[in-house]
Amino acid sequence: MALVLAHAVVIQAITFGMRPTLSYAVLDVGGSQALLGVVVAAFAVPALILALPAGHVIDRTGERLALLTGAGSLIVAALLAIFGGGSVGVLLLATMFLGMGHLLSVIGEQAIVANTTNRGQYDSKFGHFTFASALGQTVGPLLLALPGGTVETPPVLLIFTVCGALAVVLLGISFLVRSSARPGADGERVRMLPAAAGLLRTPGLIRALVAGSIVLASVDLFLAYLPALGHERGIAAGMVSAMLVARSLFSMFSRLFLGPMVKLFGRRRLMVWTIAVSAVALMLFALPLNLAVLLLLASVYGFAIGTCQPITMSWIAELADPGTRGLAMSLRLASNRLGQTMLPSLLGMLSAAAGAGGVFAATGLLLVGGAWSGAAVGQAAGAAPGGQAAVGQAAGKDESDAQARP
Q1: pTM for the whole structure
Q2: Helix intervals (H) in 84-119
Q3: Do the Cβ atoms of 200 and 334 come closer than 8 Å?
Q4: d(CA 402, CA 406)
Q5: pLDDT, tens digit, for every residue of 165-190?
Q6: Going by C-beta distance under 8 Å and a sequence separation of 6 or more, which residues neighbour residue 305?
Q7: Which domain covers residue 157, as residue numbers?
Q8: Which UniProt keywords apply (predicted)?
Q9: Domain containing 50 — which CATH number?
Q10: What would the pLDDT profile of 358-388 be if each residue is shown by its tens digit?
């Protein structure tokens, strides 16, 4: 498990270092703010196409191959960014390889956690896993503060080089990770589409997936448009880095207490309220507030969004049978990537008229819809199809049952 946590730290450090840097690189070569929405979507497209097949292959062959392939894709992404950074097209291609590498790595990690955890312990285990992920998300934006850039632009080439070196380290860790035990022959005969359809028929699951996709898309938009907000308002790159670090740091902090918070408030209530708080924090970014208040808002947003993200992981992991958990995690990621593909592209067009502040306000409104959708989590117990009624009951009861979980 220690290797998986180390893997999670490094993959997120690479991703959260490269993604805002790619935004700066696109702006530096003359790309518009509207194009940043396309950059965010380019990160999501490979995952949208490959998520379900990747999860199904992981269920059949193990997680290690996915981790190795993901690390290789990240090395390619860094090389493209380093040697083709003067072209918007090459930067988009680098973003796509980054998205593919991130997808394969994260599905592999989540499948290992799901397959090696006992039922009833998912909240705490995924809390630890997402704590490690948030640690990497905190380290990544610190790269924007490396010396060598200008007041408003970080040292783009240096950051891409550091991320490439980290990708090589990730490849080494991937070689050391061992796949979890495979299910028996019956599990290996599970077909992808029927298994995915069975999961989607679980009561409340689709609305929970919608909520998760909006939540994750909001993080992507925050990463992509905070540099644009800095450009608009003349905010130094170091302060933008501080806001990104604050978001990640408080997301990491919130996950230390995920188990006790779920026990105290219940999954559904905690998810709905933290999404709502996230919405308010992002909408306030549209106002001309001073830097101290923006830093505080980034911290509040980070704590709230960091709390609700792991809840869908643990809930879906409990619903899935052994032999389908890789597919379940990939189904979650596929829905997330669908939101990451559609929403940033739509809001990218809005930025041409309303600026980066308008994107933050619109993202906050989307999160209000995500809070409504997240209210489905924990409803309709006992109706899960496909012989999973007992699991559905364990995961689907109201807050009173959630409070009894360790």
Answers
A1: 0.69
A2: 88-115
A3: no
A4: 9
A5: 999 999 999 999 888 776 544 444 55
A6: 215, 218, 219, 247, 251, 274, 275, 278
A7: 2-402
A8: Membrane, Transmembrane, Transmembrane helix
A9: 1.20.1250.20
A10: 888 888 988 988 888 777 655 443 333 333 3
